[in-house]
């Protein structure tokens, strides 16, 4: 598909991942709008198009990591494992695109470079790196919370003569590690997932760890078809339970403090949920692991003991034991044989907190305590989360104000959806929404349906724009940070706070009140006549 220059559209959607695909379907097929989707990749998939590193897998259970808007789609798709791997998720998203013909109005290999709001027409003027210039009434971003990879500016980084890759932009043809000396820098989610797989292929693997991590075993296994068949019999009720939950999962809430039971009972509960694996360790054990430092410490010590029991070399085990941050203060990581990997003879762990990387050399990596010769460097160094993808686009609202300037001290949004001074710009799972603290498809569907609801209202009432009130926005940002203050999230240098990006304002970005509470608040805003928004009618000078 090619977009003609100066074409006037109803809506432009940026991105063709989960958010963009569903937004396209809602606006084009449900509301009947003239929509174009711009996508930087050569096909659909978003996060799962780019993140193809070894071991890439979702940490939400497969039967919940999917769309729920079409019961027939839910019934026809069969997942093969407890946690879906990247190739399977990508196949699913391709199936969705095929089923609803969503490529028809999508232009691939195209990145939006600028979007400026024209106050004389109440329309957005959008430009791309391929020379497209279009205007639209509604601009919706589905650019992902973790889409802009970042690599620390190590001295000599460009001098390395071997192969180097970032996990968030992996070669689609894959990488052969056979017989190679490999370095992995970083032990966040992508590092935790890729290290065991790379270790099984490489001749030697050196892991450069800055922060030891708490991880929970996935207990990944092939799903019993009878279990999936049972889910499908009650899929709508299961999904509805997730919609009103804390994390977007259909788990029963456990109202029990880790401090209300004795040590023996507490460890038994931890052990049970540990054996079940995944997020059940968090949601199915105790309710105060993320709000009480003392309760958090009981989970932390349980995991530390598991690491010491698993890793045979006591010195290596102690390096892997997390002590610099509380459990629950960073993203909860789900692993498959991560700690077991350090029992392999071909794996070396380097603690770069005590011996930092001083430079990348043509043949390897130098730290304060030595030089490591490698053939391949894998940068599992994370992302400029939440705001990085927005800052790559020149987005300007009223008066030519740049979004990156508006957000210079931290992201400002109302409901994580809109920004004061940027009319009819909608962000799917933006800063200030549950997004990364939830099962993403549940959060995405709520956002897409809410934006569709807003647009439907605007058109039915003959309104040109909707815009967040500055006061409502300030109150929402304060609310988001107020909710975070008593949690463990405020006790670690995490990407939730932007702490992984030098110079980035330290502001807690996601909403931690839960997807159900958030959904209820959004519904209240609509019921109260779009409280916190200013709606403006179409003027005679502005065509509808």
Question: Describe it for me?
Answer:
- The protein is of the alpha/beta class and 544 residues long.
- It has a domain at 7-148 and 385-537: 3-Layer(bba) Sandwich (FAD/NAD(P)-binding domain).
- It has 16 helices and 20 strands.
- Strands 1, 2, 3, 4, 5, 6, 17 and 18 form an eight-stranded mixed sheet that branches. A five-stranded parallel sheet has the order 7-16-8-9-12, with helices on one face.
- A hairpin with a 4-residue loop joins strand 5 and strand 6.
- 49% of the residues are buried.
- Residues 540-544 have low confidence and may be disordered.
Radius of gyration: 24 Å
Number of helices: 16
Characterize the main sheet: 8 strands, mixed
According to CATH, the homologous superfamily of one domain is FAD/NAD(P)-binding domain
Low-confidence stretches: 540-544
Q: What helical percentage do the residues reach?
A: 25-40%
CATH class of one domain: Alpha Beta
The secondary-structure class comes to alpha/beta
How much strand? 15-25%
CATH architecture of one domain: 3-Layer(bba) Sandwich
The separation of the N and C termini measures: 26 Å
Quick one: overall form?
globular
Query: What do the pLDDT scores average to?
Result: 92
Q: Could you name the CATH topology of one domain?
A: FAD/NAD(P)-binding domain
- Total beta strands: 20
């Amino acid at each position: 598909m090619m977009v003609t220059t100066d074409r006037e559209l109803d809506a432009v959607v940026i991105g063709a991942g989960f958010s963009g695909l569903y937004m396209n379907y809602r606006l084009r097929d449900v509301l009947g709008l003239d929509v174009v989707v711009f996508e930087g990749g050569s096909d659909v998939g978003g996060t799962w198009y780019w993140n193809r590193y070894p071991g890439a897998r979702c940490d939400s259970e497969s039967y919940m990591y999917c769309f729920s808007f079409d019961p027939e789609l839910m019934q026809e798709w069969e997942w093969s494992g407890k946690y879906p791997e990247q190739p399977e998720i990508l196949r699913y998203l391709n199936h969705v695109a095929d089923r609803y013909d969503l490529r028809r109005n999508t232009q691939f290999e195209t990145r939006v470079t600028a979007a400026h709001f024209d106050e004389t027409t109440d329309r957005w003027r959008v430009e791309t790196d391929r020379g497209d210039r279009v205007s639209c009434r509604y601009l919706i971003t589905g650019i992902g919370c973790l889409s802009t990879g970042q690599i620390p500016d190590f001295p000599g980084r460009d001098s390395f003569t071997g192969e180097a890759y970032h996990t968030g932009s992996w070669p689609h043809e894959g990488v052969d590690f056979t017989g190679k000396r490999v370095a992995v820098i970083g032990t966040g989610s992508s590092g935790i997932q890729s290290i065991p797989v790379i270790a099984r292929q490489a001749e030697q693997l050196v892991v450069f760890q800055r922060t030891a991590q708490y991880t929970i075993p996935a207990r990944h296994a092939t799903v019993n078809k009878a279990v999936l068949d049972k889910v499908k019999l009650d899929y709508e009720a299961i999904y509805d339970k997730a919609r009103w939950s804390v994390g977007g999962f259909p788990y029963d809430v456990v109202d029990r403090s880790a401090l209300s039971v004795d040590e023996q009972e507490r460890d038994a509960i931890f052990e049970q949920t540990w054996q079940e694996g995944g997020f059940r360790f968090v949601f199915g054990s105790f309710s105060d692991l993320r709000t009480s430092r003392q309760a958090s410490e009981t989970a932390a010590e349980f995991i530390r003991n598991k690491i010491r029991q698993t890793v045979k070399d006591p010195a290596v085990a102690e390096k892997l034991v997390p002590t610099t941050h509380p459990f629950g203060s960073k993203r909860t990581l789900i692993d498959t044989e991560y700690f077991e990997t350090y029992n392999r003879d071909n794996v070396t762990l380097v603690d770069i907190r005590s011996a930092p990387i001083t430079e990348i050399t043509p043949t390897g990596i130098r730290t304060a305590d030595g030089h490591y010769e490698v053939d391949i460097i894998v940068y599992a160094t994370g992302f400029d989360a939440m705001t990085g993808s927005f800052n790559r686009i020149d987005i300007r609202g009223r008066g030519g104000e740049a979004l990156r300037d508006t957000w210079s001290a931290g992201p400002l949004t109302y409901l994580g959806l809109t920004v004061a001074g940027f009319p009819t710009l909608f962000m799917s799972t933006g800063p200030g929404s549950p997004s990364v603290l939830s099962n993403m498809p549940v959060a995405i569907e709520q956002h897409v349906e809410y934006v569709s609801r807003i647009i439907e209202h605007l058109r039915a009432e003959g309104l040109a724009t909707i815009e967040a009130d500055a006061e409502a926005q300030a109150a929402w940002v304060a609310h988001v940070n107020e909710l975070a203050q008593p949690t463990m999230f405020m006790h670690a240098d995490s990407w939730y706070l932007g702490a992984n990006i030098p110079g980035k304002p330290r502001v807690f970005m996601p909403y931690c009140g839960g997807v159900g509470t958030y959904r209820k608040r959004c519904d209240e805003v609509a019921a109260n006549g779009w409280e916190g928004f200013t709606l403006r009618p179409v003027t005679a000078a502005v065509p509808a």
